[in-house]
Amino acid sequence: MINGAIFDMDGVLIDSMPIWHNAGALFLEANGKKPRSDLQKILFDKSMMAGAEYMRDAYDLPMTMEEVMQGVIDVVYKHYKESIPAKANVENFLRKLKEKDIAIALATSSDRKLLEAGLSRLHLLSYFDTTVTCLEAGVGKIEPDVYLEAMKRIGTTLENTWVFEDAYHALHTAKKAGFHTVALYDASNDEHQELLKKEADIYLKDLTDFDTFYQLRKRFALRSKARSNPPPKR
Questions:
Q1: Which of 39, 124, 144, 161 could form a disulfide with 156 if both were Cys (CB 3.0 to 4.6 A apart)?
Q2: Contact (CB, 8 A) for 35 and 212
Q3: How far apart are CA 29 and CA 92, in angstroms?
Q4: Cα separation of 70 and 77, whole Å?
């Protein structure tokens, strides 16, 4: 059974990861610092708050964490407001969930200003019953807090809530917390695709075919029920 769905935003709903690949470097260069070549890899699995703390300390920036975060947000905001596209068939997928009375939440590492700018422009924000950022939850997706808060707000339970993620570290966190998980392909995570396929309950190339997800979800639910209720020994 599925009563709730929790979606990541960047790389799942919108094709924004190419923008983030250079955001930290562009911010540092604008402040007279030379970014290290592997900066994007270092920042990849960090929340905005943790990433800001790292850049402030590693590059000796005379700023507060809040000022660093705002500086990075300013670098990418224009793209969210004007140009970042939705991933394939996202609106139709969300509409189908709504038609089945499934509550939908957003759990994102991005800032609220960015999520509202991007999803409003793409006419997707209205599909969500609630939206939660890692900053609001107090920790990045190395911990399940943002998913648990989203689930609490939509009033569902672990056994009936599915988390949609494209990043391995985030999907692993959700899975470890007890959520059912759907892995979505994004080019930014090419090196982790085999791990995602192994870890996720369902792996999808994109959100093009809602019926495929819904049928796979039913089969998974039946297998889970059978495992939890084995036949009596004779």
A1: 161
A2: no
A3: 40
A4: 10
Q: Do the Cβ atoms of 102 and 4 come closer than 8 Å?
A: yes
Residue type (1 letter), 174: A
Cα 67 to Cα 134: distance, rounded to the nearest angstrom = 17
The model's pLDDT over 152-210, given as tens digits with 9 standing for 90+, comes to 999 999 999 999 999 999 999 999 999 999 999 999 888 889 999 999 999 999 999 89
Q: Which residues sit opposite 133 in a β-bridge?
A: 108
Instruction: Report pLDDT digits (tens) over 19-76.
Output: 888 899 999 999 999 999 999 889 977 888 889 999 999 999 999 999 999 999 999 9
User: Which residue type, as a one-letter code, is found at position 229?
Assistant: N
Tokens of 17: 């990861």
CA distance 149 to 105: 10
Residue 166 and residue 183: Cα distance in Å, rounded? 5
Beta strands in 44-188 (DSSP E): 103-108, 130-133, 161-165, 180-184
Residue in the block written with tokens 């592997």: 38
User: What are the phi and psi torsion angles at 106 (to 5°)?
Assistant: -115, 135
Residue 165 φ/ψ, nearest 5 degrees? -140, 155
